Amino acid sequence: MTIEQLREIHQARPFAPFRLQLADGNEVEVSHPETLAFHPKNPRSIAVALPNGAVKVIDLLLVTAAHIGYTKPRRKRRK
Known about the structure:
Elements: H1 3-10, E1 18-22, E2 27-30, E3 36-38, E4 45-49, E5 55-59, E6 63-68
Antiparallel strand pairs: 1-2, 1-6, 3-4, 4-5
């Protein structure tokens, strides 16, 4: 994935949550535009804030796909 492609997805209005699929099979969810940051000096690197408070730095050459409009599955309510 190129930085231009990712910026287009990230800057879409209205924002749609998306998942980045990585070459190792892992996926990283970007649920809000503020959870993704572009590296100011290295156009191939991004940082994604994870729900547990950690930050994952990703090389864009390792991103194989972006799944746009992804939302977390809702938990069924107990009756």
